[in-house]
Amino acid sequence: MENSLLRMYLVNACTNNKQEKVHEFFEKLGNDLQHQLEWKDWFGILLTYYKFSTNIFLSKHNIIFIALPFIKNPEENPAYLVYFTRQWQDTMLISLHNLLAVSFQVLQLLIAIACINYRDHIFSSAYLNQSLLLTMKRLHALLVCKLRMIN
Known about the structure:
This protein is α+β, with helices and mostly antiparallel strands. It has a domain of 83 residues. Helix content is 62%, strand content 15%. It is built from 3 helices and 2 strands, in the order ααββα. Strands 1-2 form a two-stranded antiparallel sheet. β1 and β2 form a beta hairpin. The radius of gyration is 33 Å and the shape is rod-shaped. It starts with a helix and ends with a helix.
């Protein structure tokens, strides 16, 4: 759901010609997303180069670029086509709506349970307070009796 929501944000930004939002998105999240398999189509490898030192292989480096902001019509590109369809966007919104609806239902249930537990705690605390008070009164009465016997 998270990846779909992020893609929906990008599609909406592209559709509304908000290229600065697309660039900002990739500036903030690009490093994390480029390593996720689900996002491999959204990134491309521009160049691969190898580091050597006196004929010893040190490392392989890829210069990775973000393709989406530089494609003129991303809605026509096969990699992004499905995300620009009305069907995908509607399905995404319905899924999001269902997730939020279920989440709020569960939240309401948890709040009701918490209220019941709190009420039970208050009643049990009141009962304990009454029992403690009664015990203290009895103890006081015994002490007063004991003092009267001594005097």
